[in-house]
Structures are given as C-alpha cells and as structure tokens.
Amino acid sequence: MRTLSAEINKKEGEEVEMLGWVQARRDHGKLVFIDIRDRSGIAQVVFGPDVKNGAGLPAQAGDLRLEYLIKMNGLVKKRPAKMFNDKIPTGAYEVQAKTLEILSRAEAMPISVDGDGYDINEEVRMKYRYLDLRRERMRNNLVVRHRVVKYFRDFLSNRGFLEVETPLLTKSTPEGARDYIVPSRMEKGKFYALPQSPQQYKQLLMVAGIEKYFQVARAVRDEDTRGDRQPEHTQLDIEMSFTTPDEVMSVVEEMTVTMMKELFPQKKMKTPWPRVPYNEAMEKYGTDKPDLRKDGSTHSIDSGQAGSPQAKDPDEIAFAWIVDFPNFELDKQTKEIQPVHHMFVQPKEGSVELIDTEPLKMVSTQYDLVCNGYELASGSIRITDPKLQMKIFKLLGMNEEKAKKDFGHLLEAFSYGVPPHGGIAPGIDRLMMILQNEPNIREVIAFPKTGDGRDPMMDAPSEVDEKQLKELGIKVVKD
Ligand code: ASP
To answer: Global pTM?
Structure first.
C-alpha cells in the first residue's frame, strides 16, 4: 500500500512504499539524499550502502534527475536530532531506501518548481502551467481554494439553498461588459453569448419557485484584463426570494466570518463588518472600495499596479459593506446614463418617483462588499414590476421594441406570479487572492489567461479549420 510523504511521521520503524517526484538530490559520496514529493508534501529519502539488501542503491540513485517519477520501498527512521529540518513538516524523519524503480524520466525542466516561482517569467510559467502547479505554493493555493469553496457550498446547502447549474450557451446578459459570442451552426448568422453572469437565469429560478439558489458559476466578460480581472472568473452566485438587503448581507457575512474562523484562524478582522453609505465613502476615502485596514492607506489599491495585499500586514483583513449607491450615473466618456450596477436593481423606497425627473438622484438597493481595497461582491434587490423595468430600459436608451426583443422573456415571467427577490455574487478569485496574500488573481486560478487574454499552454485563441468556418458560414476579415 502506498504511503504519502506527510504520513511518514506516524510510521517510524515501518517499511513503506512511496511514489513521487524527485524534487532535489544531494550527493554525499556514499550517501545520496533525495526529496520525494507527492500531493501531500515532501519527505527525505536516503540511499546508502549500510542498509540490508540495499547494496548498490546509491549508484542507482545517482541516475536520478530532478522531476523523475519514482517508486521506492524503505524503512522510516527518526533523524538524529541535529539533522532535524524544521522547514518541512516531515523534517524529523527520513526513509532509508531499500528498492528503487524509475517510473518515468523527465527532461531538463524549463522552469524550476521548488521555489515560490515569483521571479520566473509569467508567460513561461503559464506555458508550463502543469509544471508550475507542482510548486508547493501553487498546490497550496488550489487546496485552500477547494476548502473555502467547499465550506461555502456546505454552509449554503445546510441553510436550504439549492445549487442549480445554468447554461453557458445563452443570450447576452447586459452587465456592462462586452460579450464573448459563439456562432450557431444550425442558424447561420445567429450567435449565443457566454454569460457575463447567471443574472437573468437566477431571477427566473426565483419565478420558478426555487426560493434559495446558489451556484459556483463562471462569469465570462470580454474586457481588459488586469491584476484582479480575467476573461472568465468564478462567482459564488446567490439569489433569494422574499428577502431584504439585511438578510442577503447577513448570509454572506456569517458564511465568510465562520469560514475565516475555521480555515484562517490567524487572520484578524473587525466584526460585525461596518456598513458605509456610498456618499460617505466617496467623501472620506474618495472611492467606493476603500481599504479600511488600520495600517492601510485610506484609498483603494489600484488593481492595475503591482500593489498587493502582501505589502501590508498579511493577516489583517478589513471587510465592509458599501450601501445606498446611486441607481444611475453618467458614463465618463459618452456622458450617457448607465446603471451603477446593472439594470435589474430595484431603487430604494422613495426613489422610484424620481425616475421621470431626476434619475441621477435615485438611490438604489445595491450593496457592495469590499475588502482591503478590492470590490468582492455586488448585489441588490431586483425589480419585479414589469412596468418599472420597462421604464428603466427606456431610460437607458432602449425603445420598447428592442427591450421586448432582448428582455421579453423576463418581463413575461414577471407576469406569472413573481416573488420579490434579491441576491449577490461574491468573486471567489479575488477573495482567494486576498486570503492567500497573492499579488493577483492568476496565482489562485489553475489555468489563467495572460494580460492580453491568451492561454500560452493551449495556444488559445487559435485559428480554426477552413471547414469549421464554412460550416458556420463565417468569413474572417483580417485588418
Ligand atoms: N450578477 C451580478 C454580478 O455579476 C451580481 C448580482 O447582482 O447578484 O455582479
């Protein structure tokens, strides 16, 4: 039976079989030391002539190169006290090798995988992501991410939320970004859009009577990539019927605070999370995503810069809710009116009346979650009155015909008994980036894209066969 590296601490005096990669080799003449690495970590293995039946092993071990995959048997021993290595959890033990088999050889590595990797060119790291992910830091990021997502899934499931999958091939959801579109083969000239979020689907699930929905969902947006943005990101998408902003915020706050207590007990944060009105945030901090850490500067981190949570005390986390957002604002360039969040946000009581006269003065039910200067989530109560929704479509420059063409399904759904509802969608990548003290979200995503949206490992995007294009009725025009 296989023993994992991390398990040798409990197996002193036992003979074990181990499978793993050679992470390091140290030659001391008669003795050869290697570090064997598997998914649990690393352990030291000694090849020496003094082991019964082990004659010749050092010579064999001499053939080992970095990242060879080996299978070996050996005896677990306690190291002499002065040889303890307190840098690794198995540092008090080692395995005296008895047999060795090379399962797979490795060419010279294009990147080293034993350090933290920050100093390696990122394009090269991405091209060899399957090697980059071998490093402990990256593996740990994936492990911790899994634990956090599992915690959220369990938390919500225990409270009666149902995880429902929604389509990837859909129709454009206007969340303010450009869509990625997919051509239809059956209906030439028509396109699906990849979802910018499951916004309309989750609202339709409320009409369907699901009442409490969540989904670990991918959201796909064709916008300029930055440190905290990727063409696709993962959201913990949540929607609830018969709810209030207070309830939505409480669910997310309790879920996150209890998760942090369990998985990140060393982190310091203030609870309950402060709630800051939008106007106050703008006046006091000049931004709607203030960094409220004690020793933090009071302004938000420019996510385009290398500015990372690492720069400050890595265990200080400051969450806050920003509330009372305006419903609408003017686009800085075009000066056209646009929603601050999206067009399904219910205005706050007393604000609806302003729509005909002073729409820019309308206050909405939107609530944002910010953390250490990053926006982690946006949410709101939704419009369920088809007349008000139509008015807002018109305010945003759509005529009735266009609104019906694009959103007729939603307006019609609201005519068959729609519960009041609201929700939120915390971004998992940004949360993990902050919790793991990483400088950007690429470090917590298994297979991210480069700044200009490429995947250097798969070589995507790439050209497709002429035949595929023909089937789709597409002609490519290159400038
Ligand atoms: N769909 C929204 C977003 O992706 C979140 C929400 O309103 O629930 O930002």
So the answer is: 0.94
